[in-house]
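Fold this sequence, please.
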Amino acid sequence: MDITRRGALGLLGATTGWVFLLPSVSRKTALAQDADGWRHGTSLFGDLKYAPGFKHFDYVNPDAPKGGRVRLGAIGGFDSLNPYTYKGRPAGLMGLTIDTLTTPSYDEPSAAYGLIAEAVKFPDDYSQVTYRLRPEARFHDGTPITPEDVIFSMEMLKKVDPAYAGYYRNVVRGEKTGDHEVTFHFDEKGNRELPNITGQLPVLPKHWWEGKDASGKPRDLGATTLEAPLGSGPYRVDKVYPGRSITFKRVEDYWAKDLPVNIGKHNFDEVVLEYFLDPTVALEAFKGDQFDWRVENSARAWATAYDTPAVKRGDIVREEFTFDEPAGMQAFAFNLRRDKFSDPRVRRAFNLAFDFEWANKTLFYGLYKRLDSYFANSELAATGLPEGRELELLEGLRDQIPPEVFTTPYTNPVNDKPGAQREHLRQAMELLREAGWEIDKGVLRNKAGEAMTVEFLIADPNFERVVLPYVQALKRLGIQASVRTVDTSQYKSRVDNFDFDIITHRWGQSLSPGNEQRDFWGSEAADQSGSQNVVGIKNPAIDALINKVIYAESREDLVAATRALDRVLLWNHYVVPQWYSPSDRTARWNRFGHPEMMPKYQVGFPTIWWYDPEKAATIKKQG
């Protein structure tokens, strides 16, 4: 998978954590290699679509015009330009300024082609990987990118950020093996994803980070800073208004602009990211032409907020994009570090109390589907009862996993008829009693007399309308539930340090899950501040299944292992699943063009789009 800071493009969320993005499925060209084993790209399973010497990706317009400006919106603020540490609130889109060893294709699964590295090779046992760097690769100050920079980047990123530490935990050593070659050695064999994911490493300038800033103070990769880091990518930081906006300017002499992987991309002269403290204000700012592109996450807003003259004129274009990729898991996440959530019967009771059908009809205009898998909307989702290879994997863990895994397909409660919620609340109360909780004078208490108190921590005031009805249902069970809304900086700090009862969290997934699952659900990540294991899962059976996912030797093995992992996660009731939209709802001011053949698995905005002055002039006349 590809690891990148949450909030890529569009209306960026203020929640913490990571998003894992991976384009999906198409395989046609053999994984060609020369006599010495060098390849022009990597693929986790199967072949590469694009042969050596390809001119450009199919989904770009190679003649796309350069110029113009695009403005994007974000919620919250930022206090740092360093995206390589979990500390502080880094500005979004900083990935535009730095290149990686390889870069993904938007129409293949787990496929990447050379960027800083012109070629890659690895042995059949996947015990190491070697990258041959392009001699012409440069940082923005003209300094060549060297093996020393690559090694420094791996070592330091693992040191300062737990997400990188977990993702690259099996990379034990980097070695310069030639003037333009670097080799990463792994502590295990058979992990076929490692040659792929090391290529996603952002390569940082060692000489800059080991130097001093304008005040003479040594730079620190693990600290926040408002000094724009030296980069190597298609854009550099141009203007910064801390907490308010950041402008990126296209690098005219960008060293990699003519590489096949970059033809037709990075077409805007300027990319501006504007921040808003409140989602409602952000929506009104978009309709007032204060920024250009919005991914609409609110069903209510999508249904009711776009009846405007600009939409009727066609100045604002609303468009939904559907992709064949996992929806991931968005859920009310319990903090298992707190004893009150230790019993899975208690956690299941919370699910029984949640009325998704009412929320979808009343609040969401029927636009959502309930999540019933950590890999929903894909072949990776567990369905029915386990069989075949999946069953074999689970049989080896039978004494460590819930027995329902083998006997009952997982389902969420469905309130589809009168009296259904009342029945589910009755079932919830029975589970709570079995777990040692009883109602005493209207308050749910355990045998020690301690009341069940629960606080939902949120950062978006608009989400209160979803949580408050859920709170009322929990109170009917004697649970003293409340909602606390905090600003984004406090929210991030509390989540990073696991200081919460229940939060809403999202784990993005791809069609090729792998090492990132350790950071999501692995025991080691449970105690690492800033990790994605916000639930605090420490389960040897899940650790074992994660390894089965990582070491899968075929697509069939990967699917079986992922379904088994999905099934065990579900039956442990670690979360109360929420919902997902079958499509990405987008709105944009109609001043842009895009290729005729769009990538099947990503909208690619603004990377492969461009500014259209004729459309922009029309908007100006009408405005």
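The mean pLDDT is 91. The domain at 329-580 is CATH 3.10.105.10 (Dipeptide-binding Protein; domain 3).
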